[in-house]
């Protein structure tokens, strides 16, 4: 394969040795190149690493591929996926999990989620974008021929990397399957679903919610109902605006034989206001919004929706989450504290939520840590 040679300074060498895998144009000066070109980084005459270039993305201009001089893309990928799988198996994750989490598995910009025999790729690495067949072949060689491989390279990371959105079946025919969590069954439809089909990052948090005994719970921004269905509640209200998610939610309610429920296929802000006007109260409120901070009026809406959620509780639990990378845990807690104090209510912090263990965060790539949340007990 053809490649460019790029000489880097002491600072980049030290950063690579410390584990950094992504470099902006502030670290490494642009050379003439195309998206997905291969480059050999050198310090003086010594080899440092193989990398790929994206001249259209100043933040992720250089992504490391391997620090092994004898880089062979297919073998390297297979080795890293094998190791990634081994780690998930050691922490007890079977059948469905995030198999590859970007830099944490030494595959910068690449995510692979596994749902039984379905493998979903979400990629922002320009080298794999150009050579997608390597990814497909690696998965088939490792996992066998009876699998399905679907690419869902869409969304924010694709936009920042200036790569065209891609959604296609790369191999096989299967795109819907059933997974099990908290002794409940859930339909995952990779093509109709959001992200790669299921919010794997909430796995451990669902287990925590399943331990809480409640008489009347509400799962706000419920997607396909994972929290509500996992909860140990006599009656559950579900709120979700996306109609495709609600169709799958209905299937999930049916296969888990849930009888006492209500579904609101509408805007959460509107529904919570309506429920407050009706003076409806819940002893468990789950609030798992999308990345509100990146939307218009982000902070205002985070405050508003949490405030509305707290109004629905006299005595009970609030499980509130934020997947906004720029909202740090301390700031989130301070917002909650202010809202609750202003309402002259009392609260205890029972616990903190974090992303599941397959979403591990490698040093120094702290940006891989995005999910945070609190389990609060609210009382008058
Ligand atoms: C982070 S996901 C929730 C994931 C879910 N808790 C789970 O574990 O499967 C956020 C969900 O909120 C929905 N959503 C976004 N804005 C909404 C709004 N204004 N009202 C209702 N639902 C909304 C999205 O369609 C998405 O399904």
UniProtKB/TrEMBL annotation:
> What is the designated name of this protein?
PUA domain-containing protein
Question: What organism is the protein native to?
Answer: Candidatus Nanoclepta minutus
Q: Which Pfam families match?
A: Cons_hypoth95
Print the organism lineage. Answer: Archaea, Nanobdellota, Candidatus Nanoclepta
| Spans traversing the lipid bilayer | none
Tell me the InterPro entries matching this sequence. SAM-dependent_MTases_sf
């Amino acid at each position: 394969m053809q490649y460019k040679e790029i000489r880097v300074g002491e600072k980049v060498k030290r950063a690579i040795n410390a584990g950094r895998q992504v470099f902006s144009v502030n670290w490494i000066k642009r050379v003439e190149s195309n998206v997905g070109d291969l480059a050999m980084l050198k310090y003086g005459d010594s080899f440092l690493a193989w990398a790929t270039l994206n001249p259209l993305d100043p933040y992720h201009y250089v992504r490391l591929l391997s620090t092994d001089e004898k880089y062979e893309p297919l073998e390297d990928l297979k080795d890293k996926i094998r190791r990634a799988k081994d780690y998930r198996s050691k922490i007890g994750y079977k059948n469905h999990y995030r198999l590859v989490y970007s830099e944490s598995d030494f595959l910068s910009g690449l995510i692979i989620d596994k749902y039984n025999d379905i493998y979903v790729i979400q990629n922002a690495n320009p080298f794999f974008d150009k050579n997608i067949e390597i990814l497909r072949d690696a998965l088939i060689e490792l996992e066998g021929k009876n699998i399905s491989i679907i690419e869902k390279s869409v969304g924010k990371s694709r936009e920042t990397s200036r790569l065209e959105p891609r959604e296609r079946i790369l191999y096989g025919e299967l795109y819907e399957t059933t997974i099990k969590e908290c002794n409940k069954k859930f339909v995952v439809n990779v093509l109709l679903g959001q992200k790669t089909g299921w919010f794997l990052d909430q796995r451990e948090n669902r287990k925590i919610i399943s331990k809480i005994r409640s008489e009347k719970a509400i799962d706000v921004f419920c997607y396909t109902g994972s929290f509500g269905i996992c909860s140990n509640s006599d009656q559950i209200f579900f709120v979700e605006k996306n109609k495709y998610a609600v169709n799958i939610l209905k299937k999930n309610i049916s296969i888990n034989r849930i009888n006492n429920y209500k579904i609101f296929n509408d805007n959460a802000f509107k529904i919570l206001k309506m429920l407050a006007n009706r003076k409806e109260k819940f002893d468990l409120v789950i609030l798992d919004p999308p990345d509100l901070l990146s939307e218009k009026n982000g902070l205002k809406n985070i405050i508003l929706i949490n405030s509305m959620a707290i109004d629905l509780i006299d005595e009970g639990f609030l499980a509130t989450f934020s997947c906004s990378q720029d909202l740090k845990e301390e700031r989130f807690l301070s917002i909650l504290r202010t809202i609750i104090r202003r309402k002259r209510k009392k609260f205890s912090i029972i616990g903190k939520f974090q992303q599941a263990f397959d979403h591990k965060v490698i040093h120094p790539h702290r940006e891989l840590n995005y999910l945070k949340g609190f389990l609060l007990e609210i009382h008058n």
